[in-house]
Amino acid sequence: MEGVLSYLTTFIIVVGTVALLVLVRFFFRNTVESTKKWPYQRQLLTAGIVLLGLFLAIGFLPLDHSVKNQILSVLGILISAVIALSSTTLVGNAMAGIMLRMMHEFRGGDFIEVDDLIGRVTDFGIFHTEIQQVNRDVVSIPNLVLVQRAVKVTRRDGTFINLAVSLGYSLDHMQVEEALKEAALSCNLADPFVFVEEFLDHAVRYRLYGLLKEPTERLSKTSELHKAVLLTLHEKGMEIASPHLMDRREFDKGGQYIPKTSKHSKTPPPKEPVVEEKVFDKADEAQSLEDLRQVYEKLKKKQETLKNGDDKALKANLGKEIRRVTQEIEQREEQKKEE
To answer: Is residue 63 part of a domain?
Structure first.
């Protein structure tokens, strides 16, 4: 009688497990919002229910306790072995996928670069991530690779695209910078700026930056920027010495290979905004947040040093300042999560 009851209990556990799995699947199919925050909730919950049902079913089987313990020990060893070998197995990719999703480094539609691969994320699965390249081909990358390699992510709120060009020493650098900025503005790039990168043997290397506010147009805008630079420099009679130009010209013995004096050379260059403020805005925000945390720690220490007999007004001001800093830190952290 006890054996029949044990089998019946095991059967009920199996049926209950299957029913619970169907209920979980139905619930997540009709609850779209929950999958947006963490799309692996259903998979993890399903795995947990299956394991729990398996252990309960084995526990209620009409077997000797030593046999049950042996079966449970074997299952525990198998699960431990799977987790131990996760660095080179499918479980490793699954763990990497969960970690990537929790880190929120990138999501569907983002431009990413991994080694020589450049494309937009089309699918972010638990085992692999798919990116679509400019030729419309789809490449599948194991999530474990994305964890082990450096991944460059193009920001959704805009990114600076750039190109390098080498121009001769006979050109006035201020005129060159104006021409390059004009080319960037013709492509509807915002806040263009130019760096003088290097003095080469044959030319000066300039690098032009322009803010692209629509990252989805990155590839086409980069090509458009190259075309605009070619057109603008040729219209202004500026020879491009990239990548290398061997030029032989006859000059007077007393002649010098330097640009002619222009109107711009007699007037000081206009003061331009600090480039780092535009480029490293996220890093500056992180530094500002860290400074706020340090201010909070100092205020808390100062509040702790005050004794009961100290000025009440000073205590009240400290408490008000601590609440203000705490509120600002919380707002900054919320904005960081939304980005």
So the answer is: yes
Amino acid (1-letter code) at residue 227 = K
Q: What tens digit of pLDDT does each residue of 227-261 get?
A: 999 999 999 988 887 656 566 666 666 665 566 65
Query: Cα separation of 110 and 120, whole Å?
Result: 5
> How far is the C-alpha of 280 from the C-alpha of 160, rounded, in Å?
11
Q: DSSP string spanning 118-160?
A: EEEEEEE-SSEEEEE-TTS-EEEEEHHHHHHS-EEE--TT-EE
pLDDT, one tens digit per residue, over 22-66 is 888 777 666 544 444 455 567 778 888 888 888 888 877 777 778
Q: Distance (Å, rounded) from C-alpha 44 to C-alpha 101? A: 14
Q: What is the spatial distance between Cα 181 and Cα 165, in angstroms, rounded to a whole number?
A: 13
Distance CA 14, CA 24 (A): 15
Assess whether 149 and 170 both reside in one domain: no
Contacts of 146 (CB under 8 A, 6+ apart): 96, 100, 114, 129
Range of the domain at 121: 103-153
Regarding whether 318 and 222 lie in a shared domain, the answer is: no
Burial class (CB in 10 A: 0-12, 13-18, 19+), 9: middle
Number of folded domains that form the chain? 4
Backbone angles phi, psi at 42, to 5 degrees: -65, -45
**What pLDDT score was predicted for residue 51?**
83
Bridge partner list, 129: 124, 141
pLDDT at res. 189: 93
User: Which tokens in the block code for residue 276?
Assistant: 């780092």
